Amino acid sequence: MTHSSVNADPAELAKFSELAHRWWDTASEFRPLHEINPLRLGWIESMAPLAGKQVLDVGCGGGILADSMARRGAQVLGIDLAKKALRVAQLHALEAGTPNVQYREVAVEALAAEQPGAYDVVTCMEMLEHVPDPSSVVRACATLVKPGGWVFFSTIHRNPKSFLQAIVGAEYVLGLLPRGTHEYMKFIRPAELASACRAATLDWQATRGLKYNPFSGRYWLSDDTSVNYLVATRKP
Question: Which residues bind S-adenosyl-L-methionine (predicted)?
Answer without folding.
Answer: 40, 59, 80, 125
